[in-house]
Design goal:
It comes from Candidatus Lambdaproteobacteria bacterium RIFOXYD2_FULL_56_26. This is DUF2846 domain-containing protein. Keywords: Signal. This protein is mainly beta. It is built from 2 helices and 12 strands; from the N terminus they run αβββββββββββαβ. The strands form 2 sheets. Strands 1, 2, 5, 6, 10, 11 and 12 form a 7-stranded mixed beta sheet that branches. Strands 3, 4, 7, 8 and 9 form a 5-stranded antiparallel beta sheet that branches. About 15% of the residues lie in helices and about 45% in strands. β10 and β11 form a beta hairpin. The chain has one domain: Immunoglobulins (Immunoglobulin-like), CATH 2.60.40.10.
């Protein structure tokens, strides 16, 4: 009986993790439906070989209505992107049209989590449009501090995305580089 209670609590804990739940990493045969009110968000998330999370919510939303993307670093993992000592993955997902913001990031290594101060990296999602938010570089420094930077690597990221999802080959997109803390 105790096992069932623990399993139930575990399931409830993870059932709410994604908040308003996007469809992450679009299917190879993705296309917008004619009546779609969603847009596509694309960005890459790299780290200096640490686990990272970026948190997103609707502007004016609460922390209970959030989603997060994660890059789980493991020495034997195979990241999609390797560049200048950074490793990571490309994220692509659907969100309903509206205003959103990155508001927090975590960097984890050795069981210790560094949490950023809250900030607002605002961006807008339009129906049936594709928005590129940049390549986020999250760093844990030797003195156990965290840093975040963003670069425009749209050409490289969309080339990789088009290999996974042909819909994005030669597809126009808007670049919205977010403000950093």
């Amino acid at each position: 009986m105790k096992k069932l209670i623990w399993l139930g609590l575990f399931a409830l804990l993870f059932a709410g993790c994604a908040g308003f739940g996007p469809t992450e990493n679009l299917a190879p045969k993705f296309e917008f439906a004619n009546s779609s009110r969603n847009g596509v968000v694309v960005f890459s998330q790299l780290s200096n070989q640490v686990t990272t999370r970026l948190f997103i919510r609707p502007v004016g939303g609460s922390e209970s209505a959030t989603l997060h993307t994660t890059f789980n670093y493991h020495p034997f993992s195979t990241p999609e992107i390797k560049e200048n000592g950074y490793v990571g993955n490309l994220h692509s997902f659907l969100l309903p049209a509206g205003d959103y913001e990155f508001f927090l990031y975590h960097i984890e290594k050795g069981g210790k989590i560094l949490v950023s101060p809250e900030w607002s990296g605002a961006f807008k999602v339009e129906a049936k449009e594709v928005v590129y938010l940049g390549r986020f570089l999250l760093t844990r420094t030797e003195d156990s501090r965290s840093k975040i930077a963003v670069e425009d690597q749209g050409a490289a990221d969309f080339k990789m995305l088009a290999e996974r999802v042909p819909f994005f080959k030669d597809r126009p997109y808007k670049t919205q580089m977010v403000q950093l803390p």
